[in-house]
Amino acid sequence: MKYQISYDQNEGLPNKLGLTSLDSLALAEFEGFLKAELILTEKLTYKTRFDYKFIQKIHLLALGNVYDFAGKWRTVNLSKGGFVFASAQFLPQTMQTFDAEFLKTLPTSYKEKSLFINDLAQVHAELLFIHPFREGNGRTARILANLMCRKYDFDIPGWNIINTKNYFTAYVIAVQQAADQNYKPMQQLMNELF
Could you tell me the pTM of the whole model? Predict the structure, then answer.
């Protein structure tokens, strides 16, 4: 199901490349996210600090050659399946709060994988709940999660399992539960992905 925003869903979002085919646009986006993850993985060190600017950097690297809005907070309100994401009007403040409450509180290392998974689940659920970008939020959040795993020396989650119908539904519900600061569903899901 596409987001409830105004553009021709059969043509995709207006883009810098002039692509009108959804397949061509999907390929350009895929290549951009792959490139972004490779570049950021190569530059990753134990000193890397994840903050809202780092999240913008992921998005800009991934989609900068495709969309003018790459790396910028969305300026339109989005909803999906009747679920309304954070208001575009307050995204700068919302992302600064997310940064202060979730990203800046991450420790320099983890002694237990379970503690890491709990923090990863909170960051992931909150970021997806906020949905700060016009397009590419899930992929940006998964790259951030992968980079967090690499920094803290843990395996990457098995994201492909999310594509199954039962897991995708659980994933969406887990994101929606972040609205009430209930991270248990995402923590349980992350445990299964590891």
Answer: 0.91
